[in-house]
Predict the structure.
Amino acid sequence: MVRPGGKTTGKSVLCFGFPLSIFFIVINEFCERFSYYGMKTVLTLYFTRFLHWEENFATAIYHTFVALCYLTPILGAIIADSWLGKFKTILYLSIVYAIGQAVLSVGSINDLTDHNHDGTPDIVAVNIALSLVGLILIAFGTGGIKPCVSAFGGDQFEDDQEKQRRTFFSLFYLSINAGSLLSTLVTPTIRASECGIHTKQECYPLAFGVPAILMAIALVVFVIGSKMYKKAKPQGNIMLEVSKCVGFAIKNRFQHCGKEFPKREHWLDWASEKYDKQLIAQIKMVLKVLFLYIPLPMFWAVFDQQGSRWTLQATAMNGDFGFQIQPDQMQIVNPILIVIMVPVVDSLIYPLIKKCKLNFTPLKKMTVGMFLGSMAFVAAALVQVQIDKSYPVFPAAGQAQIKLINLGSVPATVQFQPQLQSVDVAPNKETGYMTFETSKLQSLNITSGTLNKIQPLDLLEEQRYTFAFKWDPANISYNLIEDNITSKPADGKSLVRFINNSNFTVNVTMGDMAFGELQPLSASNYSVIPNPGWSYTINASMPNTCTVDSKKFGYGAAYTISLDDCVGKKLIITHFEDISPNTVHMAWQIPQYFLLTCAEVLFSVTGLEFSYSQAPSNMKSVLQAGWLLTVAVGNIIVLIVAGASAIQKQWAEYVLFAALLLVVCVIFAIMASFYTYTDPNEIEAQFSKEEKEEKKDRDGNEKEAETDSRL
């Protein structure tokens, strides 16, 4: 059937000069990339915040998943070319993919095993098992279809539609970036919202559920266009042929190790007994490029940490840009810069370099890209140093810390006995945390007005305390409060507690959080603020109900709010900062993203271009497999370092990766200097010419033999 606006050429339906089928493929790719990048963007925070995995373990699992995603394309290519064909491979593995996304979404439901409704899964192993099964299915799905979709789109064009085919690949690449860009913006926003049946928490089921829905849409769209596709039958996989040839050459070489066997120019020539010279020559060209691939995994080990280490770094930073940026949303900087940088570099930078008569070869571009990748991690290390400086210092073994809060209206002097230190505290003011040896500090002597009070102390090691006190005409009231905080709140979360500075028992709530009844000068436990950066309404009965809006809370902070008085139903409060909020702004990550994006443009785009230019026409899939394998190995390097490294400081790990990539960059530059560029088309043409001459000679000999036989 011919649709309006289309015309038929053979079996193809054309729309604006393009096969109509390719529009289904482009929409399918957009939805699939949205699904993959949307899920992958929030994955690290899901591991650390929902499953409560330690950062190194979360990083290792994240990179194991990414490595698997780049190992499975080899399997997908073999299945498509040798067994099912591209269409069925995409169809079946997309079903696996969609199931995996759905299983991951179900596995992230907090209420799945939370039978006592306390906000924590009772059997977290169920959530972990479902999550890992989902990720494995996703890895096989996305990896398996990766080498098939673009090639299947290219198959839809006739031989005389080369211009349209090039336009299709541009649209295809645009759909990848559009899906990545949009999902990196949307899913962290969904993740940061709250949902749940019994308890409200970060909404991972919906953050994974939306990508699952998009993958289902991708599958449906792909199936709708099935009758319009040109479906080429499987014709055998060249990778298997190459593997067999290489295997035969190695086997044959070891079977002929004696001195009686003459040496051959190249070890692959030992396959000449079974395979033709052209195939052997083509494999030689491929192996020459694959040899250059050996150092490349180190670049990917650095590059793919955007989604793991850099996202974790952003959780300790301030994301206030006038509107709140989530830590995992910072990854959006890369696709935005890619869209800007690729045309700028191609149309401006490269022509400018050419005008300067500099021989900026593809391998030199890749070397510069590796150097910039190394510098990106130096920038990340410098940012991490500033973050570490902003962290509070907590008491070590044998130490304790005390902070003083004067809740009264009269200045006070506190002496730490015996004769350790004396501190003046103004009304409604606090001191910073002061560190003391627990074995030496015995008591506090408080003097306020004409009154004096001594408080004996027996402090626990490695603990923080708040000593709150107030003066009234007849007495000095006080309370020593154990803070129960041993580190800065992780993942950008903030904590708040209340202290009752009135003479009444107070029942206090803030937003949907209930802090219970507080006796005079008693303090509540710390509670997590659902959305730092927001202001909340505080309600307190003193004994009449009074309300007031809190100030906006920072990220990664801890606060004590003093409930002081109630005037005309307005609650009078004082904010005290126990731990300072994140002060290093996320904008400081932009330079490292910029350097890494420049590195990607020079390294990745150029690397693929170089590989294709140096590969014989029938061997491009072998180099594609080799390229994807370097990405997988790079991620394996990260998980090994994350799992085995004894480095305690994150900035030192960044420096380690920067140094390793710099060393590899030097090695690659040396290897590249010995590389001789070849033109596979010329070599193939030479073989074709020789083959024609041999055929001509054979035909001539056959004619002579036929003439002789007649005589």
